Amino acid sequence: MANYPSGVVIVTTTNDEGLPVGIAANSFTSLSIDPLLVLWSIGNKSSSYDIFNHSKQFAVHLLAGSQLELVNTFSRKDIDRFEQIEWSLSESGLPIIEGAYATFECDTFETIVAGDHAIITGSVKHITTNIQNPLLYHQRRVGPLPLTFHGNI
Ligand SMILES: Cc1cc2nc3c(=O)[nH]c(=O)nc-3n(C[C@H](O)[C@H](O)[C@H](O)COP(=O)(O)O)c2cc1C
């Protein structure tokens, strides 16, 4: 599966105590246009599995090419992730990370347990964009979209 190229996102929410929680993910994709739905999946060994499964809302940050360090921060277990970064709470109470090229604030639509992951679908309620070069994931490597990339569809 690592041969399939994707973008990289950070998904955030808050736990029962109102503290920010976040995880790096490449399983994010578009699901439906009308209504506007997205999905991502979380492994059942993740420390935030139960939190995301029960949270009523979450925010997805599509990472920019310059945000490689955020992937390290949000996939390491031994650090306070939100201590390392610039973030703030949105009007709806979701932790928003600065500098992403798009942010989707979502209400959880449906959660489906599938094998050792849960598919979390979200109804997009608010979008902010700051279009720039995206961060990509391929064969366990993460980096910006090469400037030599061409082709329109
Ligand atoms: C590029 C990349 C993509 C990842 N994609 C996912 C994903 O889609 N779903 C998931 O559950 N974990 C994914 N992970 C792993 C989590 O980020 C990592 O296991 C997790 O944050 C570990 O800490 P936790 O137990 O606190 O969640 C990914 C990691 C990296 C580096």
UniProtKB/TrEMBL annotation:
Residues 1-144 form the Flavin reductase like domain. Gene3D superfamilies: Electron Transport, Fmn-binding Protein, Chain A (2.30.110.10). The keyword Oxidoreductase applies. Pfam families: Flavin_Reduct (PF01613). SMART domains: Flavin_Reduct. One of its GO terms (molecular function) is FMN binding. The keyword Oxidoreductase applies. SUPFAM superfamilies: FMN-binding split barrel (SSF50475). Keywords: Oxidoreductase. InterPro entries: Flavin_Rdtase-like_dom (IPR002563), NADH-dep_flavin_reductase (IPR050268), Split_barrel_FMN-bd (IPR012349). PANTHER family: FLAVIN REDUCTASE (PTHR30466), FLAVIN-DEPENDENT MONOOXYGENASE, REDUCTASE SUBUNIT HSAB (PTHR30466:SF11). Belongs to the non-flavoprotein flavin reductase family. This is Flavin reductase family protein.
